[in-house]
Each structure stands twice: as C-alpha cells, then as structure tokens.
Amino acid sequence: MVAIAVPEVDYTQYSNRQLVAVPLALLAVALLVIVGWYVVTGAPANLGLEFTGGTELRIDVDGENPRQQIDEAFSVAPESVQEVDVDGSFVVTFQEGALGSSQIEEEANAAGFDVLTVDSVDGSFGPEQGQLALGGVVAAFAGMSVLIFVIFRSFVPSIAIVISAFSDVMIPLAMMNLFGIDLTLGTVAALLMLIGYSVDSDILLNNSVLRQSGDFYESTRRAMRTGVTMTITSIAAMAVMTILASLFGIQIMQAIGFILVVGLLADLMNTYLVNVSLLRWYVYEGVKR
Amino acid sequence: MIGWLKSNWRVALLAVFILLAGLALFSPALDSGEETLGNESEEASTLTNLRFGLDLAGGTRIRAPLIGLTADNVEFAGGTPQEVETDVAGQLPNTDTTDVIARQATEQGEANTVEVVNPNVTETEFATAMDDAGYEYDEISSGVTDATRQEAINVLEGKINQAGLSGGTVQEFQSSGDILIEVPGQDRQDVIELIEDRGNVRVDIYYQNDSGEYTTERAVLTQDDFQSISTASQGENGPGPNVPVTIRPDSAEEFREVAVETGLAPGGSTCTYDQDRENTQPCLLLVVDGEVVNAFGMNPDLGESIESGDWVRDSSFILTTTDFEEAQRVAINLRAGALPAQLDVLGGTTSYISPTQGDNFRTYSLIIGVLSVLSVAGVVFARYREPKVALPMILTAFSEVVILLGFAAYLGYPLDLAVIAGFIAVIGTGVDDLIIIADEVMSEGEVNSQRVFDSRFRRAFWVIGVAAATTILAMSPLAALPLGNLRGFAIFTILGVLVGVLITRPAYGDILRYLMTDR
Predict the structure, then answer these.
(1) How many domains does chain A have?
(2) What are the recorded Gene Ontology BP terms (chain A) (predicted)?
C-alpha cells in the first residue's frame, strides 16, 4: 500500500505576500469568470432545467445511428443530446417552450424509443426556484460567517476563514462555467455542503494556532498533518462518487461530487496559503498593534 | 460489569443505537409502518424496511399549483355563499357557479373569501365582476384558499385510489401552496390524464321548448344527486359502455318532473344530437367539465316507468358513454368528486422514472456507496498504517450510515439519489472528525493516563463541535426551503452530523482510549 506522507511546507521561506499571491489571483480569475458570465448571460452560471424550465428525457434507442434517429424523431431540435456510457441510453434536453412535455414524450414513444425518465419544469416556475436557491446560499454563508466571528471573537482569524470559504465556493462556481456544468438544485446543494465542509480544516488550523501551546510553525504543522488527511479522504470519497456517477449517468450525484472535489482542492490551497499567512501576520504583527 | 459500563457508556450507547437501527431496518413488525410512499418496491420491502423514493423505485411525480384567484375579506352583505357565487358568476364571461367558490368565515379571525377557478378569468375581470356584483373586498391574489387546497387533495387522493393506483400520495408541497402527487410505478401520461381535468360531471337535458327552439336544461343531475355509483360496465349486450347509478329519492322526484316537462320521459326518446342537433327528440347530455361527452335518448320502457312514477322507487339509471375508457373516467370522477380547482400540470414540474431505470439506479447507487466507503478506507489505512487506529475508524463511520439507514426506515423516509449522496457526504465528514480525534489523541507522545486522554479528547471535540455547527447551519436553508428533493439531502446530512457528534464520535474516543491506554 502507498504511504501517504503529508507534505511538510517550510513556511519560513515565504513571505505572506508570496503565499497569498496565487490563491488571490485564482480567486480574482474566478470572480472575473462569474461576473463576466453574469454580464453576458444574466446569471452567474449556466442555469439548469430546474431554473430555466424545459424538458429532459432519458431514452433507450435501438438500432443503427441512434443520434440520427433522435434528430429525426422530434419535431423540434433538442437543445442537447448526451450519451450515457454505462447503459448506452441518451439524455435529450429540450428548451422551455419548444414543445409541451407530453407531446415530446408522445413523439419519443411514436419513434419507438423506450422512455426511461422524463423531467419537465415550467418556465414560470424556474426563476422562482432560482431566487430561493440563491437566497439559501447567501443565507447559509452569512450564517456561517456570523458563527465563525462569534466563536473566534477576533477579526483577522475570523475573516481569514470567511475569505477562504468564500474562495472555496467561488472557484468551483467558476469551474462549473468552464466545464459546462449547469447550476441545478444538486449543484446548489453541493455549494452549500462546501460551505460547511471547507471550514473544517480552517477551524482546525485556527484552533491549533490560537488556542493551543507551541510556536506558530509547530502548531501549523500539526494542524496541517490532520487537516490535509481529512481533506484528502473527503476528496477520495467524492472523486469516486463523481467518476462512477458520470459512468452511470446519475447527474445529481455527479454534479454534487464534482463541485465538492473542486471545492475541496481549492480549500487545500486556501487554507494552507491564505488562512496560514493571515494567521501568521496576526500572530507576529497584528497582535502587537 | 457496571464499572465497565460507567467508563464505556459511549460505546454502549453506540451499540444500543446500532441495535435499534437494525431493528428498524429488519424487523417485520415495523414493516407496516407509516405509508409514506406505499409499496413501490416489493423486493425492498421483503428484505428490509427501507422505502425507496421515485428515483429508485420508478413512478411519476407531479408538482403543480392550483389555478385560481382569491378575493380576501369579502363583505357578503347578508347574502348566503350560494347567492354570492351566483352573483359573481353572473358577472363573468363563460363562468358557472362551479367556477366560483364563496366561503363564509367559520371562525373568529377568519375572513370571507371568494375564489374564481376558471383559468380564463383575469384578475381585472374578477375585480370588475366583484365591483359590479356589489361585494366589497380587500385585495385579489392569485392562488386558492387552504380550504380549497385541502378539498383538492382529498379529491385527488380519491381519484388515485379509485383508479386503483396503489401507493400514490397527494400532499401540499412544503407549504408552498403547490400540490405534490407521487404515484409509484405509474406512467406519467396516465397520471396526468387522471388528474388534469376537474372531472365535473353533470347531466343536461337538451330539448325543444314550447316556442320550438332548442334549449338546454342544465345540471338536472349532478354528483350530489347520485346515491350510489357502480363500476363502469362494458354493456356488451345492449347499451354499450356505461356507468350504472342510482339516484337519491328526493332528486329522483325532481328529475322525474323535469323529464316529463321536457318531453324526454313520456314514451321515451330517440336522440340524434350527434347527427343533427336542430332536429332531434329530447336528449340527455353527459357533460364533463363543460364538454358534452355523449348524448343519448331514453328507451320507451324507462320513459313509461318515469312518467308513471314507478321509477322513483327504484331510481336506477345508466349513464352511457361512447367508449369504455370514458365510462371508467366518468365513474372515477363521480366517485371521487370534482376538483374544486384545476391543477396547472403544465405550469409545474413533472418527473417520471421507469421502474427498470429505478432498479438500475438502485444498483448503481449501491455500487457508488460501497466504492466510496472503500476509497475512504484505503486513504485512512494508507495514512495510519496501523489497523488499531484505522479499523475502528472505518467501522465507526460505517455504523453512522447504519444508524442513519435505521432512521430512514423508522421514519419511512423514502430514499432517493440525493439522500444517498448525503449519506456518502456523511461518511466523508464522519471520517474527517475521527481523524481529528485520532491525531489529537496521539499527538505529543504516548497516552498513558486517562486524564491526558480526556483532555486531548476534549480539545479535539471542540473543533468537531464547531465544524458540525457550521455544517448544520449551512444545510439548514436547504432543509427549510421548498426546493424539491434536495430537502432529503439536507435533512440526512444534518441528521448524520448530529448522530456523529452525539453518538458515534464519542464512542470512537472510548474505543481509541481502550486501545491506547490499556496495553
């Protein structure tokens, strides 16, 4: 079995400015992508079926040239057609207003396709859901921030956690845009999960540095040993879930897994670069002021 | 024994919970518990008490609002609700009294309301009609009242039961005002067909009045007039597809009078409504939701019997239809009653999962769950390389899932894909916290006394507690907001965190202490 040695970083070699440069640059790029997306499309990410409305079918197609059969079967062109690897079925998505969901289903049946699943959401229903979901994310983040401030009762360590959690959510959101993953209820749940998940290692670090004996570098090393193991186990579980779910075509699990993997990777970076340097500044310089 | 229990009560508590979970999962006594989603999966219900949601069992889910407009705080000005309904309906185009519902406040603090459930009436038209009819009100909002919604839920349940769709449920969706209908194992089209119409059945008489013009005597028979409604009959040797009914004695007398007056009963009548409605003997029209589905005459014997009054004592009657399916629909509608308002099926969300796909998803999610746990175990073993630390860790995390499954079985909460994703996330956080405990306890050299262990364990627990609080806080909006099936994900993540912090992680501490100190 491979031994996992948590890497030891010699933080003394780097200045705070050097440490935060990369993560902040990445955060800036992520924000740029999200804002750019918002300006161009009117939403921070590509909205999925649940928020825009539309119809999605999962069908089995027998015979040759399934894609051509699908193109010919429907009286309107589908927005997208994706093949699911494991069982060879197809996920066909139609935009809102193209055709009624019942008619789409009838056309699929008429073409001899075996309809496995049908999901349809009305367009007037979607935006309302989107507002709710967005409100939920903001509320969760605000609640988490308040809790952190109440527990640590000092500004710099608390804001360090909040900034790092903010970046943990923004980077996967930007990645979703780049990888063409839609914002759905599943991905919103994953972003919320990330808020809770990603602060664990930050809390561990802050606790180790601020509340326990030992010098800064020793405390950081100890927290890092535990924290990195934690995050890697979670990443392992989520990566397995993402890969298998994408093979099986289970989109909700795939989306939740992908976002958590990206977010936890971002968390590794943010915790041990951003949070550490802010804490170091606080311990060596901030407290003296 | 008692001494052991005293120092290891956390482990004992964990054992008790695992036992309870096992009981909830496998005990046949609990199997007939709450009927949350019914008997969607035979295979599952024989093996465990777990219930599967539509994702994993197959079936149809429809979430849709009821169409209607409600005027609040209406001044009835002494009129009865019936009078108000007639007045308001009279002011609206193409609107019947069945499209207007006036409700008198029954309790203190409630207000009188008037609802219009005709989808074609706009808010402005409704406002004008209220003004013209002379009823004052506060404001008009879209949607229907709680009383109407409750009635609709009852009627929908009746329709689903009458149609023989076992295990279907109808409820209000997380107090959003929408109706959520779930029918396991059933095709989407069939369910939509069953529920999308209001199913208001009535019988009209179409006849020539004294001045020779054709006119319709409306609603001579409505649902309330029927004493009993038999199941639809094929009627092969005679009348064709039909629904046999009997009519209440008092309604029968009224019907007799109208039938005689309109010329339907005496001598019977032959109806040619479908061929030439300007030249026919009197007809009975079977009208569903305002549309004539069949027109039929009356055979001479029955006509005689009605005219003479003999029929009133027996008062059986058949409603003929053009085909058997129609007869079945009419029978269901008559038995379950009419929906007080129409469901806006197209304006909501629907999803359908075929039963085979549900089966597949079940297998897939089991594989995903098992492999995720194995990968976590792999990382933990690779990191600690000491089975003494790693093995209890994995077993503890696993017991967390068992307890959660027990909860799900006990509550009858249907498992779906989102819930399973939640379980996997719970294993992730669970193991994280166990790693914190293990590292903290083993840090700074040997643990040789209970006191050292306890102080380190407490320190680790502080971090775990704060982390758990943030996770619960982050997931709570999802558990509270009406955002579809993600509620399950949130509820089980929160429950998992609670089970972890209160039961399994303290127990892991005890196990670790036993292994570290008593050597």
Answers:
(1) 2
(2) intracellular protein transmembrane transport; protein targeting
Domain boundaries, chain B: 2-58+354-517, 69-142, 148-198+342-350, 202-316
pLDDT band at B517 (very low <50, low <70, confident <90, very high): low
Considering the domain architecture, whether residues A167 and A260 belong to the same structural domain is answered as yes
Rounded Cα gap, residues B130 and B148, in angstroms: 20
A171 and A76 share one domain: no
The residue among B316, B323, B183 whose CA lies nearest residue B251 is: B316
Instruction: Tell whether A202 and A237 lie within a shared domain.
Output: yes
In this prediction, residue A109 has a pLDDT band, given cuts at 50, 70 and 90, of: confident
pLDDT of A186: 81
Domain boundaries B2-58+354-517, CATH class? mainly alpha
Is B381 at the interface with chain A, CB within 8 A?
yes
The CATH architecture that domain B69-142 belongs to is 2-Layer Sandwich (3.30)
Q: Is residue B44's pLDDT more than 60?
A: no
Angle at B258 between CA B254 and CA B259, to 5 degrees: 110
Are residues B379 and A229, on separate chains, in Cβ contact within 8 Å? yes
3-state helix, strand, coil in chain A (%, to 5): 70, 10, 20
Convert A48-81 to b/e letters by CB count within 10 Å (16 or more is b): bbbbbbbbbbbbbbeeeebeebbeebbeeebbeb
Chain A environment of B491 (Cβ under 8 Å): none
- Chain B's closest residue to A237, CA to CA, is B372
pLDDT score recorded for residue A145: 93
The alpha-carbon gap from A115 to the nearest alpha carbon of chain B, in Å, equals 7
A132: CATH: 1.20.1640.10
Q: Is B30 on the interface with A (CB under 8 A)?
A: no
Say how far apart CA A271 and CA A275 lie, in whole Å.
5
**ipTM field:** 0.82
Domain that holds residue A82: 54-121
Q: What is the pLDDT of residues B96-137, one digit of tens each?
A: 888 899 888 877 667 889 999 988 889 999 999 999 988 889
